[in-house]
Amino acid sequence: ALLDLSGVHQVKGTWMGSTTLPCTYVPSEDFTEQALSWIVERDSSTSTIFRRDDSGDHILLSNFRDRVSVPKHSPGNASLLIEKLEMPDSGHYTCQVIWRSTNNSLITREFTTVVKIVKVAATKPIIRAGELGLTVPAGASTSLTCEASGSPPISYRWFRSIPGGKVLLQSSGAELAWDSLRPSDSGTYFCEAANR
Description:
By secondary structure, the protein is mainly β. The chain has no helices and 17 strands.
C-alpha cells in the first residue's frame, strides 16, 4: 500500500488553457525514486513524453516541449502540468514510477489518467464598475471592466450606443477607462467578449 500512486481517472482540459494530471505517492526512506516517466497513448500509438532519471529531466516529444513540467524538489509528487492545450492532446496518460529498495530490487507502479480536451465558447460577459459605481461626478476618473470565461484567448471590445440605433467602437481591451469624466461621457456602453 505504501508505494501506490494516486491521482484521478479523468481530466477535462480547456483548449488553449492548462491542466494538471495528478500523480502522487507517499515517500519512504526504504525506497529511492530511480525514474519517473509520463507516457501518452493516442490513436493506438504509445510514446514517452517526459522522463526524469539520474541524468535529469528529458522531454522526448517535440510537440510537448515548453508545454509540460513535473514539480522539482517535491518528493512524492510526480504530477504533470500541460500548458497551451491542443485538441490532439486528448488521450491516455500513464505516470510510471520506478523505485530502488534498500535491498536493490526495483519496484514499478503505474497510474493512468484519461485526458479530454474541450473547446468552451466565451460566456456572456459581466461588467464591473469602478469604485464610484455607475453614477460618477464630472472630473473624476473611473473605469469599466469586462469579464468572460471560456477557452483562451478571449478578446474584448467596448462600444457606446449613439442616437439612431448606431454604436461607436470605444476601445479594444477588457478595461474602458476615463481620466477625467465630462457630462458628455454619460450614456450607454456595452462590451463584447469573443474567442476562437
